[in-house]
Design brief:
Layout lengths: L1 H8 L13 H12 L10 E6 L2 H15 L11 E8 L5 H18 L3 E5 L2 H5 L2 H9 L6 E10 L21
Antiparallel strand pairs: 1-2, 2-4, 3-4
């Protein structure tokens, strides 16, 4: 099963080359996000691809501010996909999480490194975050779910840590 092998081998990447991921590759990765499962197939999730360096850096600073740091929480990744979901949807966090998983798996399958970076909720609940959404034409009330940072791995690809024991139970 190729899918299982990909699931076992994908790792979160925290060191990136500054080479931009081609738009065609990003489009394919986001297409995988569009096909994530969602509660009652409502598809309440939107994605914002950020490839503009100025905006990427601005969003990094907003995220770092929430974190209480001045370090780049995006680990030098040249681009990211912000995942947001309609705030009124009860399953928004679950639906957005499934999108994030699809994005990271599709990135791995495309030879692109990825990592889920938190604090999208806090960033897009600020006035500046809301202004960013408004400036690109996003209407409605959205909650940030996650930032999927993307880029090419700088260095060795990490190996999986051993899996913890006793995590599967059966009722037969």
């Amino acid at each position: 099963m190729e899918a299982l092998a990909n699931l076992k081998n994908r790792r979160s990447i925290r060191k990136y080359k500054d080479t931009m991921v081609p738009k065609e590759v990003l489009e394919q990765i986001m297409e995988a996000g569009l096909y994530a499962a969602s509660g009652m197939n409502r598809q309440p999730v939107i994605m914002i691809a950020v490839t503009n360096k100025e905006m990427r850096d601005r969003m990094s600073k907003l995220n770092a501010k929430v974190m209480g740091s001045d370090k780049d929480p995006f680990y030098g990744a040249p681009c990211l996909i912000v995942v947001l979901a309609e705030r009124e949807m009860r399953n928004r966090v679950y639906d957005g999480s499934l999108v994030m998983g699809n994005l990271m798996q599709a990135a791995f399958d495309s030879g692109v490194g990825s990592c889920w970076i938190h604090r999208a909720k806090e960033v897009f609940d600020t006035e500046e975050g809301k202004e960013i959404l408004k400036s690109i034409g996003v209407e409605g009330d959205y909650e940030g779910i996650g930032n999927c940072i993307l880029g090419y791995v700088d260095g060795e690809y990490p190996q999986a840590a051993p899996r913890k024991e006793n995590r599967i139970f059966w009722i037969e």
